[in-house]
Design brief:
By secondary structure, this protein is of the alpha+beta class. The protein has two helices and three strands.
Length: about 80
């Protein structure tokens, strides 16, 4: 499986739609041997940066719908 690390700047309407699209095609991409993994999300209010292994502290996935803080500041 080929892992593609993603860093996304902007998680407003368009950014969230992009995240949803990526999550929706994960099964298809896995069949093709590709795994997209968010390693950081940022907006004007702050950033979430994944710890090694692709999760925020506490094991929560890095996604804007999850109220977690990584190294950095909380996204609103």
């Amino acid at each position: 499986m080929r892992a593609v690390a993603l860093v996304q700047f902007g998680v407003g309407s368009v950014g969230r739609a992009l995240i949803e699209m990526i999550l929706d095609v994960q099964a298809y991409l896995a069949q093709q041997g590709i795994a997209f993994e968010y390693v950081a999300l940022a907006d004007r209010n702050g950033a979430i940066i994944a710890e090694p292994g692709g999760a925020a502290p506490g094991g929560a996935p890095v996604a804007p719908s999850v109220p977690v803080q990584g190294r950095g500041w909380a996204l609103s």
